[in-house]
Write a structure and sequence with these properties.
The protein is an alpha+beta fold and 143 residues long. The strands form 2 sheets. It has a 6-stranded antiparallel beta sheet with strand order 1-2-6-7-8-5. Strands 3-4 form a two-stranded antiparallel sheet. A hairpin with a 2-residue loop joins strand 1 (28-33) and strand 2. Helix content is 20%, strand content 42%. It is globular, with a radius of gyration of 14 Å. It has helices spanning 10-15, 57-78, and strands at 28-33, 36-41, 50-51, 54-55, 86-96, 106-116, 119-128, 131-142. It has 2 helices and 8 strands.
């Protein structure tokens, strides 16, 4: 596998996270650095978090958490290691301004604030067409 970015190679993206269909909420990486990632996702009608054409807040939060997992998975990939399993340790804040619709392209920027002993503190901003639809601060934990 090449590590050229940006990529929307679904098989490659899925190899970087522990989730599997139908629970995958990321499908692209636009940018990556040690302290930042930009991920993307386009919810379809078949998505488990779609209700009446609307991507629910729980799906937005899961997309943001998987974006953090994508950062960790890509970092492990670059060092030749398999992506670890992790989970949301705590959500300090989660604000939704607007719920996306089926087919909207979500673009999330994850900013790594602190990473220590498998616990990562992040700020995440999710946009649709450059409009902020959700923000969060969370801790994720790698097992």
């Amino acid at each position: 596998m090449e590590n050229r970015l940006p990529t929307s190679d679904q098989n490659f993206v899925e190899s970087l996270i522990p989730q599997r269909f139908p629970f995958v909420m990321v499908n692209s990486i636009a940018e990556y650095s040690e302290s930042h990632i930009v991920s993307g996702f386009i919810p379809t009608e078949e998505n488990i978090f779609i209700q009446n054409g609307i991507f629910q807040a729980s799906g937005l939060l899961e997309h943001q958490a998987q974006s953090v997992a994508l950062h960790t998975g890509y970092k492990f990939y670059l060092s030749g290691k398999e992506a670890p399993t992790g989970y949301i340790g705590a959500v300090k804040s989660f604000e939704v301004n607007k719920l996306p619709e089926t087919g909207d392209e979500l673009v999330s920027e994850v900013f790594i604030i602190n990473e220590m002993m498998g616990v990562t503190l992040v700020d995440v901003i999710t946009k649709v067409n450059d409009e902020v639809v959700a923000k969060s601060q969370m801790k994720t934990v790698v097992m």
